[in-house]
Amino acid sequence: MSERTVWQFSDDRGQLSTAGRRPARVLAYVQAGATLWDHGIRPSAIFGSDHDDRTVPDTAKTGSLPTAEVGYLGAGSSLDVDTLLSGEPDLVVAVSYGGGHVYGLAAETAKHLEEHVPVVVIDVGQARGLTEIGDRFAQLARSLGAEEPEVATVDLDAARHRLRTLVAAGAGPRVVALSPAGQEQTHLARPRMWPELRALAELGVDVVEPAEGPGANWSTVGWAEAAALRPAMVLADVRVNATPLGELRTNPDWSAIEEAARVVPWNPEPVCSARAHARFLTLVADALEAAGR
């Protein structure tokens, strides 16, 4: 490290970012910003993807982030470099789903952004497990002078143990993860493609694998086909781009699912901290325990 380089970090593209001082004004994709917050880093601003609202952040993705105190610059293709640089960030933290592509920004926007400010990209796709993703955010946070409290790891270990014990004791009903897509159809998640679902499967939870067919991450089916799976628990996508569950009350197939299953809110773009993961595992364990009664 040269005399003028005080901070450096190699991201998941293998790209080394450096600065003459430790970055203090961090602009982050909403998922990354919420994760860094749990490590004690307050982003100066956050941005979303084309799935998100242009004026307000998706609260399903923000975790414990105090959104009233953190600026939201907008989302996806509506963002330009001038808007992203308006708060004078000295670091941008983005995510990728593989190939090093910056998720949530147009390719040209991301390219020109890097001409002005260091951009760190963390891969949150299926190439690695949730623990590995969390470790990468933890490494970045430490480089920025912060760390998640030790109690978060203790809570996560306890949540994992509780869930594993429940499943081993026979409280392991069929679980379906889905993203509602209107009155006619829904997207069934392919568990192997989502780190959080793979983490559940590793703990012994029976997360249903949809039939092979089109769609790498999701299998799109009619609601009747989803109901025929007869899940005892449903992990329901609650992001703004998914159909709100309240709008499905008149759908007989969803009503049948809801009547028979425990419904747990699920964010497919999870906050990748020990604190947030422990909270999610606790929700699942509570539902499994209730379903097994």
Helix content: 25-40%
Percent of sequence in beta strands:
15-25%
Tally the structural domains: 2
- What is the CATH homologous superfamily assignment of the largest domain? Nitrogenase molybdenum iron protein domain
Structural class: alpha/beta
Q: Which CATH class of the largest domain applies here? A: Alpha Beta
Low-confidence segments, ≥5 residues, pLDDT <50?
none
Order of helices and strands: EEEHEEHEHEHHEEHEHEHEH
Summarize the structure.
Residues 52-261 form the Fe/B12 periplasmic-binding domain. The chain has 293 residues and is α/β, with parallel strands linked by helices. The protein contains 9 helices and 12 strands.
SSE layout and pairings?
Blueprint (H helix, E strand, L loop, with lengths): L6 E4 L5 E4 L6 E4 H9 L6 E4 L22 E5 L5 H4 L6 E6 L10 H7 L5 E5 L6 H14 L6 H19 L6 E6 L4 E5 L5 H8 L15 E5 H6 L4 E5 L14 H9 L1 E5 L7 H18 L2
Parallel strand pairs: 3-4, 3-6, 4-5, 6-7, 8-11, 11-12
Antiparallel strand pairs: 1-2, 8-9, 9-10
